[in-house]
Amino acid sequence: MPELRDDLAVECRGLTKTFEGFRAVDGIDFEVEKGMVFGFLGPNGAGKTTTIRMLSCLIRPTSGTAFVWGHDILTDYMSVKRTVGYLPESPGYYPEMTPVEFLRYFARLFRVDKSREKIEESLRRVGLYEERNLIVRSFSLGMRQRLNIARTLLHDPKLLVLDEPTSGLDPRGTREVRQLILDLGETGKTIFLCTHLLPEVEMICEKVGIVNRGRLVAMDTPDNLRRGISAANVITVELLPDGRTDEMLRRVESLEWVESARFDDDERMIVESNTTVEKRPELAKVLVESGAQLLSIDLKEPTLEDVFMSYTG
Amino acid sequence: MKSMSLTKRRIRNGITDLTSVPVIMAKELTDQFLSLRAYLMATIAFIGISFFMWIQTEIPMGTNPIVEMVVNLMSLLGLFFAVAFSMDSIVSERSMRTMPLIRSTPVSASSIVLGKYASIMVIWLVILGSSILYFVLGGSGLVGGVSWEKLLLGYASTVLVVAAVSALSIFISSLSSSVKSSALGSLSVVFGFMALSVARQLFSSFESVMDILDVLREVSVIRHSSMVTEQIFSDGAGMWWGVAGLLIYVVVFTLGAVIVVGLKEGDLP
Question: Which residue in A60, A81, A95 is closest to B104 by CB distance?
């Protein structure tokens, strides 16, 4: 077995999970360095949640394994649980408890300091100190999410595993939770952020892994991933509305180097080519011949959404 | 060899680590004492005992029949207490989505099951203790003393009944995916066993049906509990068979619940 590296927070080796014959996670291998905010992306059902549930020792892999801070999730899972702070998507809560009671209960389960000072400090950190004696039933979704983030921090975990932490939140709640994650990242915590919200990843993450149909299909920094798909040459064409026709689209699509052509929501034509060779002059010629009145024709700067779409179809 | 030792290690961590039992038990006790259920059960017990004492003042019949009636009442009450307090014990953590939160802490499956189990037994002991006090204080004035041996043996038998039915009900709860299905499962089993004697009378002329009913009767928790309580007052030898039957229930279904929670929540291989 290869040596474990000291600088790694997470190391997956052929991690696989099968549910009744369906391979939800299919032999994933990847590494996340300590102190990094890592974004784990993928469409719904891609295997993101299954992967992080295995990393948090909530389910067992069918084959392969992973190491969290050097602890094997198969053999040393109690140590893994002490290392990881896990926030599930839509986490539960005890409606009749106050935040103080809720956190004290989990501090006891984690076998860490459950003193009032410590609990109140956790609540201050997530901005719930003033609400410390209200019952959780009266909390908004965002407040409950922040309470659960406080719960994940109780045992001062080295790795935070957050599954869709802003799911279902309103814009204000989303901003608060996002800021909290950024603050935690700045304190040196390693954060494993599982999401399908790409602006969140662009804002927060230093490195991104994209998973599709149970397999890891890309892994790099957001900038490198964007550069990686620039070869796809996404061309944006602005036209006057008068000359725009479906026939024009068909003619563009019939070009040998064109992968796809469509009008986007802003009524611009988006053309994806399969070559790195400059094709704008040729495209302009075809469009003008089709009766289009061109305003501009540019190479589009790929976004993380383009990266995501190109890897996940 | 490696997978063998891995399996052993996981089983050891999942089953023998009981360090969080008191934490889970304390939380459950707080919840239960804040809920109406425990007080409702205690009220029924006190009303029942008061009723028997009132009968005694109207138609004096000596101490033992009163003790027997009280023990039978507590035994029946214990049966429903056990179902009412156990049927949502595990499954409620799933329906509230708090199970993944608990399982993300270093808590074993056995701590979860036994913590909840212990809290149910403690509440029953509190109800029993206060009812003993009430009965003895009232009984000594009304019937001129109580047969301590019968009373304590009778009450001990109800502890065993509650332990057996709770274990069964927690096991059903651990298998269930909703509180409704767990409640339906637990109540069906208990009422099913209760209906066996009626069924035996109805189908007495059908030999093959009777064979099946006889087998079910042998494994019935109701039969075992009535074997114990009845024999206490008639000094019969069947009591120990009843005790053994109830103890088997406790061991088999508690272990079963630990294994199911361990398997479902990732502790066991």
Answer: A81
Note whether A14 and A93 are same-domain residues.
Answer: yes
Does residue A266 sit in the same domain as residue A141?
Answer: no
CA distance B134 to B136: 6
Tens digits of residue pLDDT in A186-225: 888 999 999 877 888 888 899 999 999 999 999 999 888 8
- Assign residue A232 a region: left if phi > 0, alpha if psi is -120 to 50, beta otherwise? alpha
**CA B162, B163, B164, B166 torsion: positive or negative?**
positive
Alpha-carbon torsion, ordered A252, A253, A258, A264, to 10 deg: 80
Residues A21 and A145 in one domain: yes
To 10 degrees, the CA torsion angle through A99, A101, A105, A111? 90
Residue A139 phi/psi, 5-degree rounding, is: -80, 150
- In chain B, residues with a C-beta closer than 8 Å to the C-beta of A88 are 97, 100-101
pTM to 2 decimals? Answer: 0.82
Task: Give a yes or no: residue A2 inside a domain.
Answer: no
* A131 and A157 fall within a common domain: yes
Please judge whether B23 and A105 are an interchain contact, meaning their C-beta atoms are less than 8 angstroms apart.
yes
Calculate mean pLDDT across residues A122-135.
Answer: 91
For B259, the 3-state DSSP assignment is: helix
Per-residue pLDDT, A169: 80
Name the token pair of A178: 């996002």
Residue B88 in contact with partner chain A when CB distance is under 8 A = no
Q: Which domain, by its residues, includes A275?
A: 228-312
A56: chain B residues, CB-CB within 8 Å: 104
Tokens standing for residue B165 = 């039915």
SS3 assignment, position A201: helix
Structural domain for B208, as ranges: 19-264
* Residue from B2, B4, B104, B108 to probe the interface with A (highest A Cβ count within 10 Å): B104
Is the distance from CB of A205 to CB of A39 less than 8 angstroms? yes
> Do A57 and A113 fall into the same domain?
yes
Beta-carbon contacts of residue A122 (< 8 Å; ≥ 6 apart): A103, A150, A153, A154
- Count: domains in chain A: 2
A265 with A139, same domain?
no
Q: Please report the pLDDT score of residue A90 as a whole number.
A: 85
Q: Report the CATH number at residue A50.
A: 3.40.50.300
Which CATH number goes with the domain that contains A289? 3.30.70.100
Say if residue A174's pLDDT is above 60.
Answer: yes
The residue among A204, A220, A236 that closes a domain is A220
- The complex scores an ipTM of 0.84
Q: From chain A, pick out residues whose CB is under 8 angstroms from the CB of B100.
A: 53, 58, 86, 88, 91-92
Could you report the average pLDDT of every consecutive run of 10 residues in chain B (269 residues)? 62 75 94 83 81 72 71 86 91 92 92 95 90 71 62 87 94 92 91 79 74 78 78 70 87 93 72
Structural domains in chain B (count)? 1
